[in-house]
Amino acid sequence: MFRPSGYLARVMRIDPVQRQSVISLASTLGLTAIGFLSTMFFTHTVGLSIMGAYYLFVAYFSVFNLIGDGGFGGAAVKRISEGEDQNAFFTAFVFLRVMLLSVSVSFLFIAQPYLTDLTSSGVFPWLVIALVVSVFTNIASNSVYGTGKVGVNQIGGLIDTLIRIVVQVAAVVLGYGVAGLAGGFVAGLLASGLFNFRFLELSPARFRRSHIQSLFAFSFWTFLGAGGYLVFAYADTILIGHFLTEADVGIYRVALQLTSIATFITIALRTTLYPKVSYWGKQHDLSSVENALARAFTYSLLLAVPVVAGGWLLGERLLYFFYTASATAGAAALSILLLVQVAHVFMFLQTMCLNALDRPKDSFKVTAIAVAANIGLNVLLIPAFGIVGASAATLVTMVLNAALANRALSRSIRVRIEPGAVGHIVLAAVVMGAVVMAYSFVIPLTNVFVVLGAVALGGLVYILVLLKIDRGIHDELKELTVNLGVPWPDAL
């Protein structure tokens, strides 16, 4: 008989990093699955042009929210995670975050005459509301995350997505279009903030100038580094909206969303490892950082490599059946964006380590070079090659960022991959690709169920081959599965 208390005790015996990684991965999977289904629904219901307008709203929100955050969110996580003067750092963060809200909103109103995409679609008021709500949500979520409650933070993200999509679906069905999508975005933010606030154990306390200075010392470079990452995330979207049409924005973003499957594990591991690496760095336990990073590379590539192989073979068909025939115009861009996600694995994890090891200045420097190249290449390539040019610009600069981050991080720790495990991953993906190609020759990919069958077959072949040839991955996954109370198949 299933006993929740016994099951919970079993789960709590799992290594903390593994346990929190599983929670984070489960949350990420849930978020992405819901996000995929909702995007498919919205694309079929309101069309790619409305979706493009919504993606522009999200892009501009991210830009002005970064101004409102000022890098203090990351600084608060870092300082709170170090375990000293947590309440004082929390209170100082609240004070600074509220002050910066006025700066962010002021910049927004100054820029309003130039934001014609937002004003013409009618979502400008929603952007102001979203920025106000985000202050409360970011304070709650960053403070909870800084105290090591990674699982709570991830569940908060899941609640954000669930509430956002429920409200968006209802609003779209009622005919509110892009305004309904923006309103759902705000509702999700608020719900997530309320949930995280429920688990917030920090309390207001007197803070000194030294606490402000400590946050400033970290936040300045974190802000600049986050700005660089934001360029990678949204500069292409904004520039596509400037040079092309909202429909092109929609096509590009749905292709990018499809490739994001490749980074499920990377995002989960980054979220879990940041507080751990921060603590290990504070304790000068760099060997633990090196081992954790190498293993994180392996498990990130465990998903990214087969997704790239499968995406090259089935991407056009998936765009057609999931997002409408118009979305297949993004097939060429999708092929390039799949490689972007592999480079993203190394960039994301290495810059995370730089920040966690209290080197945000170096993180910014390597990102700044790539950012400048990204903007320049986007301006040159988008008018000439459309969304394919945007994809190429992102790939080149993501590889550059990963290489520079590797060089900077190597000054502090030994950055390495596990060649045996990575080789096994590539070999298993090659076998999977051969099987999927044979399947598509025998059975024409003429309907969504046949395509999903190809995906399922490829995934099964990949897992079986990998578990057969890599004993280390096999044993770790078996141990984790058994500890979660899930029977391990005898055939494996």
From TrEMBL:
Residue ranges of the TM segments: 21-42, 54-77, 89-111, 123-145, 212-234, 254-273, 293-314, 320-346, 421-442, 448-467
Topology of this chain in the membrane: Multi-pass membrane protein
Domain of life: Archaea
Keywords: Cell membrane, Membrane, Transmembrane, Transmembrane helix
InterPro entries: Poly_Biosynth_Transport
Stated name of the protein: Flippase
Subcellular compartments: Cell membrane
Species annotation: Methanoculleus nereidis
